[in-house]
Amino acid sequence: MTKSVSPQEALIYVMVTMSAADRMMTDNELRRIGGIVQNLPVFRDFDKERLVAVAEECGDLLNEDNSLETVLDLVTAALPPKYYDTAYALAVDVAAADLDVEQEELRLLQLLRDHFELDPLVTAAIERAARARFRTI
Questions:
Q1: Which of 73, 70, 86 is nearest to 8 (CA)?
Q2: How far is CA 121 from CA 66, 79, 127, in A?
Q3: Rounded-to-integer distance, Cα 12 and Cα 36, Å
Q4: DSSP state of 79
Q5: Domains of the chain by start residue, with CATH
Q6: At what angle do helices 103-116 and 120-134 cross, to 10 degrees?
Q7: CA proximity to 39, closest of 51, 25, 27
């Protein structure tokens, strides 16, 4: 594999992949990605003007053969292991943006858990926190 991405681009790839998992990138998901990139400290040094270009690069990759494995390999190569839980948390937030997580999104979360070899207690805590944040009355 010759392509490489920065750690911040890798996190964006995770979010875009989650948004595209059910074949419908909704406005809520896209707004959530934009808000995350604008507000979280992990993106402090990221050029926000590049968000659309990075998202389009990821979309192009997702249209190729073996696309999911390619994206996961790029993300794993770009991220130090201490950021795997961050990537997972961002994926969960994007999945929860529509307040309805589809089967394809659940499957991608499982793939991320396995690919990053995340502790089940850590992923359960991330998921539980998202449920608390996105609950409606």
A1: 86
A2: 30, 21, 10
A3: 9
A4: S
A5: 7-134 (1.10.3680)
A6: 140
A7: 51
Contact 123, 113 (CB under 8 A): yes
Distance CA 120, CA 42 (A): 23
Nearest to 79, CA basis, from 1, 22, 16, 8: 8
pLDDT at 98: 75
pLDDT tens, per residue, the chain with 137 residues: 458 899 999 999 999 999 988 777 878 888 889 999 999 999 999 999 999 999 999 988 988 877 888 899 999 999 999 999 999 999 999 998 877 777 888 999 999 999 999 999 999 999 999 988 888 88
Residues 6 or more apart whose Cβ sits within 8 Å of residue 91? 14, 15, 17, 18, 108, 109, 112
- Tell me how many degrees the CA angle 34-51-94 measures, rounded to the nearest 5: 40
Q: Are 69 and 75 in contact (CB under 8 A)?
A: no
Q: What's the token pair of residue 18?
A: 């989650």
Identify the pLDDT of residue 2: 56
